[in-house]
Each structure stands twice: as structure tokens, then as C-alpha cells.
Design brief:
Elements (H helix, E strand, L loop, with lengths): L9 E9 L2 E8 L8 H8 L3 E5 L7 E7 L8 H23 L13 H15 L3 H24 L8 E4 L9 E5 L9 H28 L2 E2 L9 E4 L7 E3 L4 H10 L5 E2 L2 H16 L7 H10 L3 H15 L5 H12 L20 H5 L1
Parallel strand pairs: 8-10
Antiparallel strand pairs: 1-2, 2-4, 3-4, 5-6, 7-10, 8-9
């Protein structure tokens, strides 16, 4: 349906075309606010998304549509990166859970011998399969949360790119995943919804993995250490490695296991990492998800929150130098900035219903 069919319902409007998207910011005529039955019928024919910007007034309407067909995704690349990352996480998990394995030799091996070698490798590495599957599920669902909500707002978003890592560089076998947004964000409502969807989705999967894993973890009352949850690096030695605690982790452990030290099941370990990575990603800095969410909530005041957080990381680095590494990495990713880039309509307020989601 062309836009001109809607003009008669508007007191005035502004149309903006950026790349392959058309954005319309309209003030609806008083007789059609509500909306009227006639306007409602016409909006059903609109080949895109529309929503009311209620905090600007009951008469403000936003419409978005795509002007060109979506580009074809490179499915082979995305699936290949997922499979390679799954393999590196699996190998890394075997070092944590045991027994340690390395990738089988695949080059120059006859097909029959290759199949036997791969089957033997899968059997040997099977104890770490649950860890790899659970952690990859957290990453995948996190990125799909961003992707689905971006598509709902007719934002041109890529499929997830997964980043594999050798276990000797990153001991969990991955640097995470990301999606690319190829079209601009209209307002802070869109940014908040897209930014918050990933952490919420990943958080839910992390909790499921953690709950299942804790229910199958091994209570170890005789093990005394810095915290009440630990793992053994079985591929290296038999000394327990104690993992950091949190209010949520402490409550979950008490609920499922009781007030006793516990050796984490592979699923619980994946859930712990899922919560940890989600928390790091929620630091309110630059282009991290936390930066998206805080900018969505506070607009330009995100810069102040970002500087306070960066200062906090620098202070924490006095006790644990890795926080300095995180601060440096965040600055590199943000090209030296802690502030979030602006959206097209930064002054349009977000609905009150978005505050609980963002907080």
C-alpha cells in the first residue's frame, strides 16, 4: 500500500528514506486518534511495521517499511562458523572436564580412516559434549534474541557470526558471537528492545542449563576453598578450581544442592559461563548490550554512566588486573569512546512499559 493512502489521516508528517528503509513520523488528525476504525483498517494494509509513540502524545504514529528485497544471507559462512566454534568449545570443554583431546588429523587421510578417526574422537570427547551444547545454546539464543526483535522492527540484521578461539588463547573456546545491523535505528525504543532481547534470551537459557546442571552436580562437603562451587581441571591435574560466586549463583546452589560445596556438572558450568558472559556484556559501555540498554533508557546521559563504569573497572584493576584488560578491550571496540552512537530520533521518549525490561 503506498503512503499516499494514509496522508488523509495525518495532520502533518515527515518522511525519511535511509538506505533501503522508509521511516514516517506522523501526527494523526484529531478525528482519527484512537485510532479510528477507518485508520485501523488502512494500517492493516501497511506493508511494514507501525507503532504509537504514546509518551509524545496520543496522536504520534511511527511507520517503517522496507523499500528493497532483503539481501541473501551467506548461510554457508554462518553455519560453518557455528560448527567450527562448536568444535573449539567442545575441545576447550574437554580440557576442563576431561579427558583432554585435540582435533583429529583430517588432511591427507583416506575417507575410511578419516571416518574411523572422527568416530573415535567423538567417543573420546563425549564427556564434554553437554558443556559445548549448553554453552553454544546460550550464545545462539542470545544472538537470535537480537535478530528476531531487529526483524520485527524491519531492521536489516545479519545472521549471527560465531567467533571460534583455540583453547590456548581462550580457555572456553570462543570469543562469543555477534550480529550486524545494516540499517539505522530509528529511536531509543527500538534500540532498547533489540539490545535487551539478547541478554534476556541468553539469561533464560543460562538459568535452564544451570538448574539442570546443579540438580545433577556432586555435593562435596569435604572440599574447602574460596567459594562453594568448583571444577577439576581433570585433563591437567586433580586440584579444584574455585569459581566466582554471585547472589544468583549462591541462591541457585542453595535451592538445588543445599548449603554445601559442590562440584559443578558440565551443564552447570555452561550455565555459570552463560551468566558471566551475559553480565560482562551488560556493562553500560559503548556498543555492548548494556550500552544499548542504558542509552535506550537514559539517552545522552549514558555517557556519564559509561565514564563511571570505566572508572570503576580501572579501580578494580588494582586488585585483579584482568579488569584493566576488559577496559582496554571495550575502548578498542568502541574506538576509544564509552558513549553510545546516537539514533535517528534520540529525543523521542520510550514508553513506560520498557523501563522494567531495561532495568
Amino acid at each position: 500500500m503506498p503512503l499516499k493512502n494514509l496522508h488523509r489521516f495525518f495532520a502533518f508528517w515527515r518522511t525519511t528514506k535511509v538506505l533501503d528503509r522508509e521511516f514516517v513520523d506522523a501526527v494523526v488528525a484529531a478525528e482519527h486518534v484512537g485510532p479510528s476504525a477507518e485508520l485501523r483498517d488502512e494500517l492493516k494494509k501497511w506493508p511494514g511495521l507501525h507503532y504509537w509513540s504514546s509518551r509524545d502524545g496520543d496522536d504520534r504514529l511511527v511507520l517503517i517499511r522496507t523499500l528493497k528485497p532483503a539481501r541473501r544471507e551467506r548461510w554457508a559462512l554462518h553455519i560453518g562458523l557455528f560448527l567450527v566454534t562448536f568444535a573449539t568449545v567442545w575441545v576447550a570443554g574437554s580440557a576442563l572436564i576431561g579427558p583432554a583431546v585435540s582435533f583429529p588429523t583430517i588432511f591427507g587421510v583416506p575417507p575410511v580412516e578419516l571416518w574411523v578417526s572422527v568416530k573415535s574422537w567423538v567417543s573420546e570427547a563425549s564427556p564434554a559434549l553437554g558443556f559445548a551444547a549448553a554453552l553454544m545454546a546460550v550464545l545462539l539464543i542470545h544472538e537470535l534474541g537480537h535478530y528476531v526483535v531487529a526483524k520485527r522492527y524491519h531492521i536489516n540484521a545479519s545472521l549471527p557470526y560465531f567467533l571460534p578461539a583455540p583453547s590456548w588463547i581462550n580457555f572456553i573456546g570462543t570469543f562469543g558471537a555477534f550480529i550486524r545491523l545494516r540499517s539505522p535505528i530509528v529511536d531509543r525504543r527500538q534500540l532498547l528492545d533489540v539490545g535487551a532481547a539478547g541478554p534476556w534470551a541468553g539469561f533464560v537459557v543460562s538459568i535452564i542449563a544451570l538448574a539442570y546442571g546443579l540438580a545433577h552436580s556432586t555435593p562435596s562437603p569435604d572440599v574447602v576453598g574460596e567459594t562453594s562451587q568448583f571444577i577439576y581441571l581433570r585433563a591437567i591435574n586433580s586440584s579444584p578450581i574455585f569459581l566466582g560466586d554471585s547472589l544468583l549463583m549462591s541462591w541457585a546452589r542453595g535451592f538445588f544442592v543445599g548449603n554445601t560445596p559442590v562440584e559443578l556438572h558440565p551443564f552447570a558450568l555452561a550455565g555459570w559461563f552463560g551468566l558471566f558472559v551475559t553480565s560482562l556484556n551488560l556493562l553500560p559501555l559503548g556498543q555492548l548490550d548494556g550500552g544499548h540498554v542504558v542509552y535506550g533508557l537514559l539517552g545522552k546521559h549514558q555517557t556519564t554512566v559509561g565514564f563511571l563504569m570505566l572508572s570503576g573497572l580501572i579501580i578494580l584493576g588494582r586488585w585483579f588486573w584482568v579488569w584493566w584488560l576488559w577496559a582496554a578491550l571495550i575502548l578498542v571496540l568502541g574506538r576509544g569512546r564509552v558513549s553510545h552512537p546516537s539514533v535517528m530520533e534520540p529525543h523521542r521518549p520510550i514508553p513506560w512499559s520498557r523501563w522494567p525490561v531495561g532495568i
